[in-house]
Amino acid sequence: MMKGLPILVGAAVALLTGTVVWTLWDARRPAADALQSEAAGEAASPARGTAMRSQLDESAVAASAAATAVVLPALDCAQPPTAVATVGAAAVAGDAFCAELTQLSGLLRPASPRAHHDQAAALFGQWRDAVLAEAALLADGEPLTDRDTAMGGADLAGAASRTGDAAADPMAAVVAAQLRRRAAIAKLTRLRGDLAVADRDIAEEYQRDGARWQGPASVQVIPYLARCSPNADATTSDLRQKAAAAFAADVVSGKSQPAAAATAHRLESLPAFDLKSGGMEPDLQRAVAALQPGQWSAPVRSRAGWVVAQAAQGPAGQARTLDNVRAEIAQQLTERRKLSEAQRLLVALRSSVAVYELVRW
Fold it and tell me: pTM (2 decimals)?
């Protein structure tokens, strides 16, 4: 069993009960197994190529038709199913999945059935990708460890303050699960991803965005957002404001780095932008304009939610050479590559492992 992820592996699939689940299993799995068998035959006999590929295409269509013919039960967390999905040989436990979904729903308060559906589907996507990532790490002989989770990066480790007693802080278990999932994907990306940034890439970025990199440094706004709909009720808005205030307290006091505090308090890191570029809402514009370089604002209400922003400034009044900004560009390009490589690796894993959803979100 993958440590830290509440999943049932291997033989746990045999524990699935209920007519609908077995109907789904019987309808989909034989077709999937047949496709795998056919694919193995084609690999062993390249001469069969075109004809076999045609057969596989037809089999895929038949398997898809069989799968869509099954009517899945709606997810009911009042009576969690044994499993909500299978990912390869692993089954995602219904009770653990529902427990996390319930905690998130209580915090974010989805405003409609559609919003609740989207939340459940997004959470399952996280679980699926984490299961795939941990399985890949095991296959590489590099299983995810508690140390990986605790030291997975400054943007993750600061959330440790929210991973203590689940009874005292119901969100602690949710944060711990989120940290582990992100750490698994981050470790897989480090091990398998191509994260090298060449000097040529840095020079091209310097020329491509000359207005940003070559001009005099100016005040940059570094915003973090506690997302909250303009139509949210007073209770939800108050919770998100308190989250933004707690984030601000952590970064101002030096208790946590910004990315770590954002993870701990569920804020989003937004792209930095130039203060002189304008386009900000008036309240936020006034709040940031009053800051000295390095200072943080108090939470400011915007259309998107509660914003806490920092003003940062480089050497003013002088044009910047490539050498002046080389390290900054390299860091930005590396972060971009981490995101793109993680997505590339996950897409490949999703296409190589059978994933069957056993409920409707």
Answer: 0.55
